[in-house]
Each structure stands twice: as structure tokens, then as C-alpha cells.
């Protein structure tokens, strides 16, 4: 089985712009979660989608949003980018509880 | 209550040593405790996980010890190798909360040849 695929791997954006990141989960997995990883804050949960519905949400501002499509693929959007949004954004897929398998991440740099 | 506290922040051992990484949690509703290994430039990889009804679990050279009454769990790496040098994260989740994982801050392990 193919693993979790995230695209693009690297992105450079300017403050104020918006960005969309994509995640293709492992085949058969219905849960997709997103995490932000920074040196200072570590791995922080953004949100989880299960069968196209947001099931959990972390403590991030409304500029961070996501969605999941009927084929379980997910996208994450960040609007009005700030310098502090520079991070590694990780997507994980699973069956909905327990095991979660991560992709390689998208490295976002905001300048 | 949602926090998972991990220690130490960094750890250096000689090849063949047994590094031990500890985690503590507050929320007794947590019922799934995985450990992840992350190499630079890669996403975290699931190593091993345990549920509270078991006190110990071994997979290869990796062992989780779980103390439910103390709300602590730890990762032991037997016969550590330089290739084990990576950052290790513990995490916790509640079954009914789905895929949301609460992570510890990570431990940077270096295994010297």
C-alpha cells in the first residue's frame, strides 16, 4: 500500500497570501488529521476529518481551515499568512481511532 | 489536563546502551499511547503503541512500559545503534475523540558509535 502523500513538499509564500496544502491518505483510511510542527511548540493538532466531516478541532485561529473529499483526500488552507505560520505541516491518516500514519509533510516558509 | 510531558529533552548514549524516555499524562480518559520516531526531513513514523490494559509491550528492540496508577509510560530501546539516532515523541489519545493525538515535546536521541 502506498503511504500518506503530501503535496507540495516545500512552499515559500509572502505574508498576507493564502496557501492550500494537499494530503492523500492511505487507501481505505477514512480519517485524516493535520498537525503543525515547529521547534518551539512541537507537534500541535490542527483538525481531523472523518468521512468528509470535521470531527475534532485544535486551538488554532479561523485562518486555518480544511476539508475532506469523498475519496478521503484532504486539503488544508491557511489564509492571510503570518510569519509565525512558518512550519512543517503534517498530515496523518488512520481508521479513525488509534493508529495514525504520517506523511513527509509540507515545509511552509512565510517571508 | 490535555498535556503530555516528556523527558529528557535530549539524550546521548553509547552504542549498545539502553536509552529510556519517559512520558507523563494527566487525563485518565486517554486510552491509546503511541511512540513515534522522526528523522530530519521526514514525518514521524509509528514505532510501537500500548493501551492501558497492558503493562508492557515489546516489538523488536523497542519496549513500552506502562504504569496506569502513576499515569506514566516509557520507551526503552535495547541494544541501541547509531541508526536509532532520531527524535522520539510520545503521544496520547482518547478513543472516542478519534484521531486527535496529544504529543509530548520530543526527545532528541544520539547514539554514539
What is the gyration radius of chain B calculated from CA atoms? 13 Å
Q: What's the main sheet of chain B like?
A: 6 strands, mixed
Beta-strand content estimate of chain A: over 45%
Shape of chain B: globular
In whole angstroms, the N-to-C terminal distance of chain B is 40 Å
Succession of helices and strands of chain B: EEEEEEEEEEE
The portion of residues assigned to helices of chain A is under 10%
Structural class of chain B: mainly beta
- What's the average pLDDT of chain A? 95
Estimated structural class of chain A: mainly beta
Order of helices and strands of chain A: EEEEEEEEEEE
- What fraction strand of chain B? over 45%
Structure at a glance:
The complex is a heterodimer of chains A (111) and B (113). With 111 residues, chain A is mostly beta strands. Chain A has strands spanning 5-7, 10-13, 19-24, 31-38, 42-50, 53-57, 64-68, 74-78, 87-94, 100-102, 106-110.
Tell me about this structure.
The complex is a heterodimer of chains A (111) and B (113). Chain A has no helices and eleven strands. In chain A, the strands form two sheets. In chain A, strands 2, 4, 5, 6, 9, 10 and 11 form a seven-stranded mixed β-sheet that branches. Chain A has a four-stranded antiparallel β-sheet with strand order 1-3-8-7, with no helix packed on it. The radius of gyration of chain A is 13 Å and the shape is globular. In chain A, a hairpin with a 3-residue loop joins β4 and β5. Chain A starts with a strand and ends with a strand. With 111 residues, chain A is mainly beta. Chain B is mainly beta. In chain B, strands 2, 4, 5, 9, 10 and 11 form a six-stranded mixed β-sheet that branches. Chain B has a five-stranded antiparallel β-sheet with strand order 1-3-8-7-6, with no helix packed on it. In chain B, β4 and β5 form a beta hairpin. Chain B is globular and about 45 Å long. In chain B, 32% of the residues are buried. Chains A and B meet through β4, β5, β9 and β10 of A and β5 and β10 of B.
Amino acid at each position: 500500500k502506498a503511504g500518506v502523500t503530501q503535496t507540495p513538499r516545500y512552499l515559500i509564500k509572502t505574508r498576507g497570501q493564502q496557501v492550500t496544502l494537499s494530503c492523500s491518505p492511505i487507501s481505505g483510511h477514512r480519517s485524516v488529521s493535520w498537525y503543525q510542527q515547529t521547534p518551539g511548540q512541537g507537534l500541535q493538532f490542527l483538525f481531523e476529518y472523518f468521512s468528509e466531516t470535521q470531527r475534532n478541532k485544535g486551538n488554532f485561529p479561523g485562518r486555518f481551515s480544511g476539508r475532506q473529499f469523498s475519496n478521503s483526500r484532504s486539503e488544508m488552507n491557511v489564509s492571510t499568512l503570518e510569519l509565525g505560520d512558518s512550519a512543517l505541516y503534517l498530515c496523518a491518516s488512520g481508521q479513525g481511532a488509534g493508529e495514525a500514519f504520517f506523511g513527509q509533510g509540507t515545509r511552509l516558509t512565510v517571508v | 489536563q490535555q498535556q503530555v510531558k516528556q523527558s529528557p529533552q535530549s539524550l546521548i548514549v553509547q552504542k549498545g546502551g539502553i536509552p529510556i524516555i519517559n512520558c507523563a499524562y494527566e487525563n485518565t480518559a486517554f486510552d491509546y499511547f503511541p511512540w513515534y520516531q522522526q528523522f530530519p526531513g521526514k514525518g514521524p513514523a509509528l514505532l510501537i503503541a500500548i493501551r492501558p490494559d497492558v503493562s508492557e509491550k515489546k516489538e523488536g528492540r523497542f519496549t513500552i512500559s506502562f504504569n496506569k496508577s502513576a499515569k506514566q509510560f516509557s520507551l526503552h530501546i535495547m541494544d541501541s545503534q547509531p541508526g536509532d539516532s532520531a527524535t522520539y515523541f510520545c503521544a496520547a489519545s482518547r478513543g472516542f475523540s478519534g484521531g486527535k493525538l496529544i504529543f509530548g515535546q520530543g526527545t532528541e536521541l544520539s547514539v554514539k558509535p
